[in-house]
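Handout, section B. The chain below has 384 residues.
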Amino acid sequence: MPATAIYVLVAVPVVGALCGIVYSLFTLWCAVSFRSQKAESPSAKFAPPISILKPLCGMDPHAYESLRSHCVQDYPVFEIIFGVADPGDKIIPAAQQLASEFPAVPIRIVHCPQRLGSNLKVSNLIQMLPSARYEYLLINDSDIKVPADYLRRVVAPMESASVGMVTCLYRGVAGHSIGSKLESLGIASDFIPGVLCAKRLDGGIRFGLGSTLAVSRRSLDRIGGLPPLADFLADDYQLGHRISEAGLRVELADCLVDHYLPEYSFSAFLQHQLRWARAIRTSRPGGYVGMVFTFVIPWSLLTVLIMPAATWAWLLFASAVLLRYAVSFATEARVLRGRGFEDFWLLPFRDAIAAGIWIMCYMGRQVIWRGKRFDLINGKLREI
């Protein structure tokens, strides 16, 4: 093999590992410098009535417990609107039971018979919105469990007229399957650090997270409402991005919520990761390309495999592993308040999978969502 080829063969993974180390140091700083959650109580002065919109489709893990947590909010005036496309949906009895259990909370179930786009969640929301009575709206997924002061903490930043949306970080609560544990680990060790990194680099949040999307009707009107999002896969990203582009701020709420994860099989986990990756690629193509430089363990491992006799290669690998674990533990301790340390032995395996998913993302444009296959074109879903 020519000397130039050997040099390139060694240089590429070394450069990748060094870039990953720089990224890991930066995300470690982001996690360590993250302000402690619940440092102070939210202001009681600003607590406008709010409509909670919950689009439902099937029974998610811990669905009743998650939905019930929205009914016991320490908040003066709120209503809950559940939206279902199928009048025979299995989640409906749970919603009806909540309405009986909490007669003081206005709870309505809205049938959403029309299909107004490829994204059925947004289609439901469009049909639910006319039933909402209040200026302020909160949208989140049915598998999200929230603390009792959730509404107060989410609404508080919206007292400023410059804030167009409030979103929220979340913990992935894993089930017992390996796929569920890997998904939770990815949220804690990769996704949340990535959000904090983007917040630092962009000077603020410029997207939304599906765990919490709190907006005013004024903000929605400014971006043309929900209908323009009806075909997008990453509707949460699009909503936050468009509000940011309209000149309004997107803020992170001073609270965390729990996201209950399904008992993914390994193949279902890979399928979900690929859908997530293709959603990110179409939403932030430049940022997705840059993710190749974040795979510090795969790059450093490749360096060792190419140069197994080189002491410096093993030192590079050891440094990469230590830094990767430092970022994960700092995120758990400082941001997510340390609830998921038991599965961190899976981290190198999960990172190897993430590198493979990054490559696979460029090998097609199809995604599978709730059992249906779609082409993903410019961020929009087209059912096959």
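Note. The chain has two domains: 16-35+281-383, 50-264. Compare this with the example in section A.
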